[in-house]
Write a structure and sequence with these properties.
heterodimer, A: mainly alpha, 12 helices, B: 10 helices
Chain lengths: ~260, ~230
């Protein structure tokens, strides 16, 4: 019984989040466009499906993943765990390797299941007439997030300034933009923004705060942030790189 | 979902070396996530994508750029201001500002700081969608705008107080929710395919990129002036 009430609550919360969007759409449809919507029944059912889908998704995550994931983020960053894995000498940033591996694998896995990324990937495959594979795009973005989070965790451990990494990342993106095929640029930039929503943010926040409060000399309030920025920057680099690579491969094949 | 399970189980059992708690919850939750995703994707194709695209076509046919931009702003502002992830981040930011002595350490000061921050971010997302839509209509190349945006971020980083930078960078990533993304993507692609001379692949994407860029600049500005 509790379970059904919980699910209902989750549904109500999602509905409330969607309400402003629905109001805007209906307002403009009625007042500005002044034309009836085609297939209103389909659209309504579609919206309902989206609501039910998100509610189920979030509730499922809350049950299966969040408690365990947050607990693991804490356990992996706990001083006792790090010390027992590296006995007998003072800690160096390299000793946190399990944290980096965890950050990378959880980033990879959660991005692969990210609903927003599904949406963009499906659209991209449809528009490009299959030249871009939804799966390939999601894979490239996930690899980007994995790398970004591992590097972001390393930054918290070493305590380097956040902006140095981000500005370097920007420079890399700009250089890649010059050479990348024009078709992919908009999509690549977009893929940075879609990676971090429902699943990744809570887990990543737990990891960042756990790290920043356990590594000596870090301030959780100041150093705990910034992981999400990494997770939004590196997918851009990964997607641009993926496009560049496939361009080179096809050129190479043509030359042969 | 399978990769997530593999990661969680492998780390729990082999690295942390503790048994899995609550196998039942884990299984039921996983089932719900899969079911939820299936519903979501189906609803996407039936509801969100078509409505975004038909509205884009309708605006393009109407030919009124003024209404199109108003719609773009409302969509950006309206979907962001109530975004749960943003509310959480704004609360944390207020906490930091109070600890750093930027604002008084009272409940009132904190909640008005958080609200101001949310409105700032929502405004900046609205503006981003407006600029992005204008770009599609006019056919400006996206990378000039992005490079300008990046330069803005870099410049603001040099000027803004150090405490706000981490939050500002993170706020770029949290603004775009699961429902906004498909709607905005469909709007962009729909516009680019109904305006002559635009290619949906080259011109249709990029709205979300703007929406994750402008909040960074505006949040740092907020940190400077408040």
């Amino acid at each position: 019984m509790d379970f059904i009430i919980d699910l209902g609550e989750s549904l109500v919360r999602t509905t409330l989040d969607v309400l402003p969007i629905v109001a805007i759409i209906i307002g403009f449809q009625v007042l500005v466009i002044r034309k009836p919507i085609a297939h209103p029944k389909h659209i309504l059912i579609g919206f309902l499906y989206v609501l039910i889908g998100i509610a189920l998704f979030l509730k499922g995550l809350e049950m299966a993943l969040f408690p365990l994931g947050e607990l693991m983020a804490q356990q992996l960053t706990a001083p006792s765990f790090i010390q027992s894995a590296n006995e007998g000498h003072t800690l160096s940033p390299g000793d946190y390797y399990w944290v980096y591996i965890f950050a990378a694998s959880i980033g990879f896995a959660t991005t692969l299941a990210e609903p927003s990324l599904f949406a963009v990937a499906i659209k991209a495959e449809e528009i490009s007439g299959g030249a871009i594979h939804a799966k390939g795009l999601r894979l490239a973005v996930s690899i980007g997030v994995a790398f970004g989070l591992a590097l972001g965790a390393y930054r918290i451990v070493t305590g380097t300034e956040l902006y140095l990494y981000i500005i370097t990342g920007y420079i890399v993106v700009m250089i890649q933009t010059i050479f990348a095929p024009k078709m992919i640029i908009g999509l690549a930039y977009d893929s940075g923004g879609v990676t971090t929503s429902t699943i990744t943010v809570p887990l990543v926040t737990a990891l960042g705060l756990g790290l920043a409060s356990n590594v000596p000399g870090r301030n959780p309030v100041l150093d705990g942030f910034g992981l999400i920025a990494f997770a939004s920057l590196f997918p851009i680099i990964a997607v641009l790189g993926y496009a560049q690579l496939s361009k080179w491969i096809s050129q190479f094949n043509r030359h042969k | 979902m399978l990769p997530i399970l593999v990661v969680v189980i492998v780390f729990q059992v082999f690295v942390i070396q503790q048994p899995l708690p609550d196998i039942l919850n884990l299984l039921v939750g996983t089932g719900m996530v899969i079911l939820g995703l299936t519903f979501f994707i189906d609803g996407l194709e039936q509801g969100l994508f078509p409505i975004g695209e038909t509205m884009a076509h309708a605006f393009a046919r109407k030919g009124s750029i003024y209404w199109l931009l108003t719609f773009a702003f409302c969509l950006g502002f309206g979907t962001t201001v109530a975004e749960p992830a943003l509310i959480a981040v704004a609360g944390e930011a207020a906490e930091i500002a109070a600890k750093g002595g930027v604002i008084g350490d009272t409940q009132d000061a904190r909640s008005s700081y958080a609200l101001g921050l949310r409105l700032t971010v929502a405004f900046s997302v609205g503006l981003a969608i407006v600029v992005g839509v204008l770009r599609i209509v006019r056919g400006w190349p996206i990378h000039y705008l992005i490079i300008t945006g990046y330069s803005g971020v870099v410049m603001m980083t040099a000027l803004a107080p150090a405490e706000i930078i981490g939050i500002a960078y993170d706020s770029g990533g949290v603004t775009t929710s699961t429902i906004t993304v498909p709607l905005v993507t469909a709007l962009g692609v729909g516009l680019a395919s109904s305006i002559k001379g635009r290619n949906p692949m080259v011109d249709g994407f990029g709205l979300i990129a703007f929406a994750s860029l402008t909040p960074m600049i505006f949040v740092m500005a907020y940190g400077m002036f408040v």
